[in-house]
Design brief:
The chain is an alpha+beta fold. It has 13 helices and 13 strands. Strand 12 and strand 13 form a beta hairpin. Bound molecules: adenosine-5'-diphosphate and magnesium ion.
């Protein structure tokens, strides 16, 4: 097949995506496909030989993730894209592919905009459709749907710029967690333990958007469950060596212990997997798609869902690929499964 793998994009998780999409592209080449690895934000020139000549049997690009979130303002200034969120020729190149592998994280790639655009163009793509993506990206909407579906999620409120700090203390209490409503990779997330640090935490979150989730800090063990073509994979327990699971602890190797399968009872394992499937369905993510559900397992056995990721990290050491490996799917096979189930069902 001819597969366009979309990488990078205009999102704080841009670097993460450059790494994972590069590895996905290599895996798909090993599986025998012809692949074009395209930066979704910077786009690409179409050579005189036509878009078809961009699809190669080997990919050589390599990227590394730095400790810091990329400087998007600078990227925008130098890209010449103006207000556009996708780069030149991206649609043309994707139209010339048999299918698009969305190797992006966050923002346009994960919030459903790109999926809707592809639907309009009749372009096939991997992963969840635009409704599931949009609902999962918006933590306020997700939490509303979890609540009406009987899925436990931390109690809290959505704060606007005019919400007073007193109101947050009164309605949510301390300790609490503050996060941008549509963020990812823990960018802008803070754990607030005393009143004095609330101001800075809110400021950090409002840097990204003007809706901020303030919710109770849930005590328990952090678990995440990947879902692949309707199958809930073994849970992974996440134990950062210090602090919480922030950007640095997520992407710098060795800072977090990730245990799969974790030391939990059979019934806890079953409940975590069932809750993950329930959360996926509540957000209208299709059965044939894939996603990863973040939860905290409380000491009384309740799994509280924090969020669903419709474009989870996809380096071989990322959480979903790790869980897939325990379930018996190697990295190349995982990438192939994601492509084939999209090809057959979209
Ligand atoms: N209510 C909460 N209770 C405890 N820890 C939380 C809570 N919300 C977030 N966290 C911590 O912050 C991390 C990021 O939060 P999450 O809601 O998953 O947002 P993101 O989209 O940035 O991954 C989680 O993995 C967890 O470690
Ligand atoms: Mg998360």
């Amino acid at each position: 097949m001819k597969i366009a793998v979309l990488a990078g994009g205009y999102s704080p998780e841009r670097d993460v995506s450059l790494v994972s999409a590069g590895l996905i592209a290599k895996a798909l080449c090993r599986n025998g496909h012809r692949v074009a690895l395209i930066d979704a934000y910077l786009g690409a020139d179409i050579p005189d030989a036509g878009a078809d000549s961009l699809f190669a049997r080997e990919i050589t690009e390599e990227y590394h993730i730095t400790e810091n979130v990329p400087d998007l303002k600078k990227l925008r200034e130098t890209s010449g894209n103006g207000d556009a969120l996708i780069g030149k020729n991206v649609i043309e190149i994707c139209r010339s592919a048999d299918i698009v592998y969305i190797g992006l994280h966050g923002a346009t790639g994960e919030n459903g905009q790109l999926q809707a655009l592809f639907d309009c163009h009749g372009i096939k793509y991997t992963g969840a459709g635009y409704v599931g993506c949009a609902l999962a990206m918006d933590k306020e909407m997700s939490k509303l749907l979890f609540r009406v579906s009987g899925i436990p999620t931390p109690d809290g409120i959505t704060a606007k710029p005019e919400t007073t700090r007193e109101e947050i203390i009164e309605k949510v209490g301390l300790p609490c967690v503050t996060k941008p409503c549509s963020g990812g990779s823990s960018v802008g997330v803070s754990i607030v333990r005393c009143e004095n640090s609330l101001e800075k935490a809110m400021k950090d979150a409002f840097e990204y958007e003007d809706r901020v989730i303030a919710e109770k800090l849930v005590k328990g063990r952090e678990m995440t469950v990947g879902i692949l073509c309707g199958e809930a994979l073994p849970p992974i327990e996440i134990i950062p060596k210090s602090g919480f699971y922030d950007y640095k602890n997520k992407y710098q190797s060795g800072l977090t212990e990730e245990i799969c399968p974790p030391d939990i009872t059979k019934s806890e394992d079953k409940l975590l997997r069932e809750t993950a499937l329930h959360a996926m369905r509540a957000l209208r993510i299709e059965e044939h798609a894939y996603c990863r559900v973040d939860m905290i397992l409380e000491s009384d056995g309740t799994p509280r869902v924090l969020e669903v990721n419709t474009l989870p990290g996809m380096t071989p050491t990322s959480l979903l690929p790790q869980a897939a490996k325990v379930a018996g799917y190697g990295y190349d096979e995982l990438c192939e499964k994601i492509v084939m189930s999209a090809w057959e069902n979209r």
